[in-house]
């Protein structure tokens, strides 16, 4: 799976209609309304605010009063074909006075989203786990070596050294074989 790292915006004009696509890194489907409100505030009085998103456990598309199946579903299909996840695409349309017809709308929304994806920095999603554990000071050198390819979020020094780190799933087995006691583990994607 792939995702984008930054918000991207792209604009195209097709037969006097302006199509503005904004791509957002997006992991929480419950915040969809916030993103739509931001798009409406930035681009007021548009004719349509269509969208499609895919997260780890949800996906959805909306035509926002365009003819059924001419905007949201074509956008969602492109996200699926590009193997993208944790992404929201909102395409804002300002009607230019020329009707595009069903096929024309599908092509226009598809093109607008595809061109935005081409501008985006696409990266692989790493599956892993955020973990915390504590070790005695004399194990720090070996631990740092084991975690050399992991993302250390925090390291605190008290009676022991406590690590908070994002590790790939397979590294968890190695840590267990060295008898590390995991204090906390949360599933994550980055």
Structure description:
- This protein is an alpha+beta fold.
- The protein has two domains: 2-124, Ribosomal Protein S5, domain 2 (2-Layer Sandwich); 127-189, Alpha-Beta Plaits (2-Layer Sandwich).
- Helices cover 29% and strands 38% of the residues.
- It has five helices and eleven strands, in the order βββαββαβαββαββαβ.
- The chain has a five-stranded antiparallel sheet, with helices on both faces.
- α2 (72-81) crosses α3.
Query: How much helix is in the residues?
Result: 25-40%
CATH topology of the largest domain: Ribosomal Protein S5, domain 2
Top CATH class of the largest domain? Alpha Beta
What percentage of amino acids are in beta strands?
Answer: 35-45%
């Amino acid at each position: 799976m792939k995702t984008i790292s930054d918000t991207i915006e792209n604009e195209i004009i097709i037969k006097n209609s302006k199509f503005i696509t904004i791509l957002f890194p997006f992991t929480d489907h419950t915040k969809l309304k916030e993103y739509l409100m931001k798009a409406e505030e930035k681009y007021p009085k548009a004719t349509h605010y269509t969208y499609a998103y895919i997260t780890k456990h949800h996906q959805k598309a909306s035509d926002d009063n365009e003819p059924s199946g001419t905007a949201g579903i074509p956008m969602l299909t492109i996200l699926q074909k590009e193997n993208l996840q944790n992404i929201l695409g909102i395409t804002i349309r300002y009607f230019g006075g020329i009707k595009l017809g069903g096929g024309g709308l599908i092509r226009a929304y598809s093109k607008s989203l595809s061109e935005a994806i081409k501008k985006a920095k696409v990266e692989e999603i790493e599956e892993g786990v955020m973990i915390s554990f504590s070790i005695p000071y004399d194990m720090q050198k070996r631990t740092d070596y084991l975690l050399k390819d992991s993302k250390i979020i925090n390291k605190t020094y008290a009676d022991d050294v406590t690590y908070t780190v994002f590790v790939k799933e397979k590294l968890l087995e190695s840590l267990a074989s060295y008898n590390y006691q995991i204090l906390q583990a949360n599933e994550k994607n980055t």
